[in-house]
Amino acid sequence: MEITYTYTRKRSEFGRHCNFTDWPARVTVDIPPDPSMADNFVPQDPVDVAIQHSYDMSEHEVNTARLQAESRGVNHTEGGWPRDINPQEQEQTARFRKKLEKEENYINTIMHLGTLMEHCVRQNNTINIYEEYFGEEEMAEVEYEPPSAKIINVIRDPNIPKRTTTRISWQPGTSEKLAVAYCSLEFQSNVEDMSFDSYIWDLVKPNKPELALKPSSPLVSLEYNPKDSYVLLGGCYNGQMAYWDTRKGELPVEVSTVEASHRDPVYGAIWLQSKTGTDCFSASTDGQVLWWDIRKLSEPTETLVLDITRKGLLENALGAVTLEFEPTLPTKFMVGTEQGIIIAGNRKAKSPLEKIAGTYSGHLGPIYALTRNPLYPKIFLTVGDWTARIWSEEAKESSIMWTKYHLSYLTDGCWSTVRPAVFFTTRSDGTLDVWDFLFKQNDPSLSLKVCNEPLSSLRLQDTGRVVACGSKVGTVTLLEISSGLCTLQRNEKNMVNAMFERETKREKILEARHREMRLKERDKPEGQEAVPEKTAMENPQEVLERVRKEFFEEIEAEMRRKTRAETQ
Amino acid sequence: AEVEETLKRIQSHKGVIATMVINAEGIPVRTTLDNSTTVQYAGLLHQLTTKARSAVRDLDPQNDLTFLRIRSKKHEIMVAPDKEYLLIVVQNPCE
Fold this sequence. Notes:
The complex is a heterodimer of chains A (about 575) and B (about 100).
Chain A: H1 90-102, H2 104-126, E1 149-155, E2 164-170, E3 177-183, E4 198-202, E5 211-213, E6 219-224, E7 231-236, E8 241-245, E9 254-255, E10 266-271, E11 279-284, E12 288-293, E13 302-305, E14 320-325, E15 332-337, E16 341-346, H3 352-355, E17 356-361, E18 367-372, E19 379-384, E20 387-392, E21 401-402, E22 410-415, E23 422-427, E24 431-436, E25 446-449, E26 455-460, E27 466-471, E28 476-481, H4 492-527, H5 530-537, H6 540-567
Antiparallel strand pairs in A: 1-28, 2-3, 3-4, 4-5, 6-7, 7-8, 8-9, 10-11, 11-12, 12-13, 14-15, 15-16, 16-17, 18-19, 19-20, 20-21, 22-23, 23-24, 24-25, 26-27, 27-28
Chain B: H1 2-12, E1 16-23, E2 28-31, H2 35-59, E3 68-71, E4 76-81, E5 85-91
Antiparallel strand pairs in B: 1-2, 1-5, 3-4, 4-5
Keywords (chain B): Cytoplasm, Cytoskeleton, Dynein, Microtubule, Motor protein, Transport
Protein name (chain B): DLRB2 protein
InterPro entries (chain B): DYNLRB1/2, Roadblock/LAMTOR2_dom
């Protein structure tokens, strides 16, 4: 059934003026309240309503696209000459000039400009507006400004499969170039198109590497020769050593033979000081330290197996992760191992067994960095596991100072080249810490989050002002640290010296006490031989049995106690 | 003649290294430096003056550029612009 409504109107009445009338108010519907319906609802008392009268705001982030800047030059040539005059012809140009000079406009303009110019020239000659007025009141008292660091440049790895920056080396001398070694350190992660190149970057052009070094296998360590800024030494992932001359090109000048090289990635490769400037040595996790002469890389000149039991067995050898050499102490070198032990070696020892002069243990994991303090060579810094430790050569038992245990691994560290109490460490959460041990030992003086990926390497420029840190994805960030952290304070050397000596003395005293205690203990059992013997006789099996029995007895005692408590 | 005198006088002031007159098309009319350097100065300073003038006029259309001084570590370049010509003086201020 269709519901229709018809509305009829006479055609003559269309468009008529509306006739409105007034009605008094009329109640159309009146619905009285029904209390029974209230039972459907539950009264809520009290009621919490949050009301806010404030602006509605929204957050929006915008980041501009990265700008690629390139340096270009402009070629200036002469132009503007009218068409009929050849600029090369002296006569024509001279004639043109003479004609121009005769014009009235020219004369007037020059007179006017001349007076103007003379006024300024004279002004310059009388007063030097940039004169140093308050020269004597030099800022001798530099106000203490909080340490800060500023990122001045970021250099990214141009290849797509990202590799870790394993080593950074500044060019000696001018420090304008940076050699960075890239290698993927993940175990067995060789992607097909991962490039093997390592690059030398010029700081003026951060977008394109200056030179690409093409080894046969990715480089794990890379060092400039401190005497010759064109020669670089590289240690490869497959254990070979190679050296480059940047004047000769991208391929290595010579590569060591595979048989004579290391069997594991070469984690440490350092130039030695010698008359020829061609000696170097390398260390790797296969437990060997090899000395080479780069003119003849077919076989090493010397080898040393890092076996601290001094038997020279490769099976007992500890894998080396860092290598250290200080040109001021040319006969000594140090190796940091995967097991957390630092081995101090003596180059001049006759037999390889005596090469290992001493060991220092104290780290719980591999030692990722090992450097001597440039001003106090007896003090060295090691970075590994979750702490950084400062050691003195004289205190063999433990480090003299150490930082607190961090929440993330410490991956690299180095001393400041200018201030003996300042050192830098990088962490695997992407933070760079600057420690000033003279000022505060609990926390770093400055902690900067450089990037979100773990930082893998760190190197300070020789001036001490700029530090380069490399991350796991191949980005090298250059930071400039505030002047407070890279200028030597007055008295600093004395204070630092006093601090190190004090700590060393403390360690020595502790060492002496330990030794005394150990001697006492050794003397005691000599009088009571029976008791220690019996306990020594218990072999592991018996110990296990005894422990098991004790354990079950304890459990039964507990159960008995419980049942007693329940029944009561 | 007077022009010569004026330019000579300016050149003889203490510390003045070079004087140049460039026309609106960039042609060096009068110069005390060698040609290639003059051409370089002409090209660069002409553009800079135009830019400076447009900046001044943008900020206040009634205003106009009367003089431009560029002080660098080594010396000071002074440019007196005009509609048709540019007078450039390079001076080493007294220190």
